[in-house]
Write a structure and sequence with these properties.
Layout lengths: L9 H7 L17 E2 H11 L4 E6 L6 E5 H17 L7 E5 L4 H12 L3 E4 L6 H11 L3 E4 L8 E3 L1 H7 L17 E5 L7 E5 L4 E2 L1 H11 L6 E4 L6 H12 L3 E4 L5 H10 L4 E4 L1 H8 L14 E4 L6 H11 L4 E5 L8 E4 H4 L8 E2 L5 E4 L12 E5 L8 E3 L17 E5 L5 E6 L3 E4 L2 E4 H8 L5 E11 L3 E10 L5 H9 L10 E4 L13 H11 L8 E2 L4 H31 L1
Parallel strand pairs: 2-12, 4-5, 4-6, 6-7, 11-12, 11-13, 13-14, 14-15, 26-27, 27-28
Antiparallel strand pairs: 1-10, 2-3, 8-9, 9-20, 15-16, 16-17, 18-19, 19-21, 21-22, 23-24, 25-26
Length: 569
C-alpha cells in the first residue's frame, strides 16, 4: 500500500522510477507524463472504495460522494456517451454547473476523448451563455438552465441517468491539448475566453511544482474554496484529484461555512483568495482551534496585505503559508513561502519556472530596483500556454515579455512587490492613488468587513475617491476619515462614503470594479459637490441585483430537482 501522507523518499522514487507514486509504468506521451485518465485509473486500483469527492450543495441540505472506482467508471461511461454524440480531440465540452461531481465527470470524460473542458458560471445570463457558446462552439453543453439553440445539450440529472447504458471500460487514450478553457472578465467585466494549451495529465515535474507552490502532498484532505469556472479553484480541484486527494467540494463559500468545513472534515490543504482570508479573520465566531488540522494554505487571486499575511502566518506557521502570483493569461508566475516572506515583507515572491520580470515606465524603459512601474513577464517554461479566443492576443514586447497591466516593483534581491492594476489607479487632484493602498488601510478597522474605492468624475478633483463599504457598524464620516488620517496622506482618504449590505463580489472573491464605478457615477449625477457620508440608493440597487441572481439560481435548482425526481419514477 502506498503511503500518501509523505513525499516519496529517494529510494521509493528509484523503485517506482517516478516521483508520481501512481505512475507504475512508462507512458506513451513523454517519459514521466501520465494522462489524466491513466492517473485516475491507477488511483482507483490503489484505493477503489475510498471516497474521492464530497459534494455539498449550497443550502447544505444534500451531500453526495463518489469513490475512486466510481469516478473512474462513471467518467469512462460519460466519455463513451460524449463520443457517441460526436466528441473528438478537436471538440469543446462546455458546462454551466456549480461545483458538482457531474461537473468533474464532464471534465474527465472530455479529456478521455482528447477534448477541451470549458466551465462557465451557473449564474451566467442567457446572453453570456450565447456569447461563450459562439466563441467556443462546443460540441456538447451541459447545463441545468438555458440552452442556446443549435447545440447538443444535456441537463446534469439526465446525463447522469444515461451513464449505465455505456461501457465502463476506458476509451482509447487520447492526449487532450488544449485541455481547458476559462472565461475571464476580472475587474473589467468584459468577457474573454482563454484556451490553455497544456495537456490533461501529470508529470513528475508538474506534481513537484504543484507541491512546491502550494504545500500540498499526496492523499491529503483538500477543501475547494471557490467555483470551478474560475482558474485557481479549477486547477486546485484537478491537481488535487490527480494527487489522490480527498476533495471536499462545497457550493457555499461564505467564511463561516468555510471555517466549519475545515473543522468538520479535518481539512489539511486549502487554497483561498485574500478576500476570503480577510472575512474569516473578521468572523465573530473565529476560533484558532478550528484550523489545527490545516497543514498548507496557499493563496492567490488578489493582493494580500502584510497585516493579513501575518495573521495567517501566526495561526498556521510560516512554512505552511504559500503565495502564488499569476493570472489567467499565465504570462508569468512568482511564488513565495511564509518563512521567505518574513525576510521580504510584502513581496509576492521571485520568478518561478524560468519566468523573467522587467518593470518599465510609461515609455517602455526598464526601471531600476525599487521604482514602481508596469510589470512585464515572460512565461514559466519559456513559452506562452494560453491564447485568447476571438480577440487579439497580448502583445509580445520583445524577448517574450508581456503585461496584463499590473503595477509594482522589484527589489535588489529580485523579489517582486505588487502595487495595483493600472486600471484601478485613481488620479485625483494631480496625485496618483492606488485603490488597493486605500482599501487595505481601512480593512484593518475592526468594524469594516469589506470595502472598495472607485474614482467618480469631479469638477474640482478630476476624480473624487469614493468608498463603498460593508461594515459591522456604520461609523460617521468624521470617525471614518480620522481613522484614515492615521495611515494615509489626506488626499488618499475618500471624500465620500456609502454603506451597503454586501459588496457584489463573485464566489471567487473578485468584483467588477468598472461596473460598480459606473453604477456609483450614474447614481451621483444629481449631487452637487458631495462630501462625507451619502446615500444614493446604491444599497437598494445592489440588494435587488442580489435577490434577482438568487431567484434565478433557485429556479435552475428547482428545475433540476424536478427533472431528477421525474427520472427516478
Amino acid at each position: 500500500m502506498i503511503n500518501e501522507n509523505k513525499l516519496p523518499t529517494v529510494q521509493e522514487v528509484r523503485a517506482l522510477r517516478h516521483f508520481n507514486i501512481y505512475n507504475k509504468s512508462q507512458m506513451a506521451f513523454e517519459p514521466t507524463f501520465v494522462s489524466t485518465g491513466r492517473q485516475i485509473e491507477s488511483i482507483a486500483k490503489e484505493k477503489p472504495n475510498e471516497i474521492a469527492i464530497i459534494e455539498i450543495n449550497k443550502e447544505e441540505t444534500e451531500i453526495k460522494t463518489i469513490t475512486w472506482q466510481e469516478l473512474y467508471i462513471k467518467s469512462n461511461q460519460m466519455a463513451w456517451l460524449f463520443k457517441e454524440n460526436g466528441v473528438t480531440n478537436t471538440s469543446t465540452i462546455m458546462t454551466c454547473l456549480p461545483n458538482t461531481i457531474c461537473n468533474v465527470l464532464c471534465a474527465y470524460a472530455a479529456w478521455k476523448n482528447g477534448a477541451c473542458y470549458l466551465p462557465i458560471a451557473p449564474r451566467s445570463t442567457d446572453a453570456e451563455i450565447d456569447t461563450f457558446a459562439e466563441m467556443a462552439k462546443p460540441t456538447i453543453i451541459v447545463c441545468d438552465g438555458y440552452l442556446p439553440e443549435g447545440y447538443t445539450g444535456f441537463d446534469s440529472s439526465n446525463l447522469m441517468h444515461r451513464l449505465d447504458a455505456y461501457s465502463d471500460k476506458m476509451p482509447p487514450d487520447v492526449l487532450a491539448n488544449p485541455s481547458r478553457a476559462q472565461t475571464t472578465g476580472g475587474s473589467s467585466g468584459k468577457p474573454k475566453l482563454i484556451k490553455i494549451k497544456r495537456p490533461a495529465g501529470e508529470s513528475d515535474e508538474s506534481l513537484m511544482s504543484w507541491f512546491f507552490m502550494t504545500g500540498q502532498f499526496f492523499g491529503c484532505r483538500q477543501l475547494v474554496c471557490g467555483p470551478m469556472f474560475h482558474g485557481a479553484p479549477c486547477s486546485a480541484t484537478f491537481s488535487g484529484l490527480n494527487s489522490g486527494n480527498l476533495v471536499v467540494m462545497p457550493n457555499n463559500f461564505k467564511p463561516i461555512a468555510i471555517e466549519r468545513y475545515i473543522k468538520e472534515y479535518g481539512i489539511e490543504c486549502v487554497q483561498m483568495v485574500p478576500t476570503l482570508m480577510h472575512r474569516i479573520m473578521k468572523l465573530d465566531s473565529f476560533n484558532p482551534d478550528d484550523f489545527k488540522t490545516l497543514k498548507a494554505l496557499s493563496h492567490t487571486g488578489g493582493y494580500c496585505s502584510p497585516e493579513l499575511k501575518m495573521f495567517w502566518i501566526k495561526l498556521l506557521g510560516a512554512k505552511n503559508v504559500f503565495e502564488i502570483y499569476s493570472m489567467t493569461e499565465m504570462i508569468g508566475m512568482t511564488v513565495i513561502r511564509g518563512d521567505e516572506w518574513l525576510k521580504h515583507r510584502g513581496s509576492v515572491g521571485r520568478p518561478y519556472g524560468g519566468c523573467r520580470i522587467e518593470v518599465r515606465d510609461e515609455l517602455g524603459n526598464p526601471l531600476p530596483a525599487g521604482e514602481v512601474g508596469e510589470i512585464f513577464m515572460t512565461p514559466s517554461g519559456g513559452y506562452l500556454e494560453t491564447e485568447y479566443v476571438g480577440r487579439s492576443q497580448l502583445s509580445d514586447t520583445g524577448r517574450g515579455y508581456r503585461s496584463v497591466g499590473d503595477m509594482g516593483y522589484v527589489d535588489e534581491d529580485g523579489y517582486m512587490y505588487f502595487a495595483d492594476r493600472r486600471s484601478d489607479m485613481i488620479v485625483t487632484g494631480g496625485e496618483n492613488v492606488y485603490a488597493v493602498d486605500v482599501e487595505n488601510a481601512f480593512l484593518q478597522h475592526p468594524d469594516i468587513v469589506d470595502m472598495v474605492v472607485v474614482g467618480i468624475p469631479d469638477p474640482e478633483w478630476g476624480r473624487r475617491i469614493h468608498a463603498v463599504i460593508e461594515a459591522k457598524r456604520e461609523m460617521t464620516y468624521d470617525e471614518f476619515r480620522r481613522y484614515g488620517w492615521k495611515y494615509l496622506l489626506p488626499f488618499k482618504v475618500p471624500k465620500t462614503i456609502e454603506y451597503v449590505d454586501a459588496l457584489p463580489r463573485k464566489d471567487s472573491g473578485k468584483l467588477n470594479r468598472a461596473a460598480l464605478a459606473n453604477l456609483c457615477e450614474s447614481l451621483q449625477t444629481h449631487l452637487v459637490r458631495p462630501f462625507g457620508l451619502i446615500d444614493t440608493g446604491l444599497r437598494q440597487v445592489l440588494r435587488k441585483e442580489a435577490e434577482d441572481a438568487e431567484a434565478k439560481e433557485d429556479a435552475i435548482e428547482d428545475a433540476r430537482e424536478a427533472r431528477e425526481a421525474a427520472a427516478n419514477k
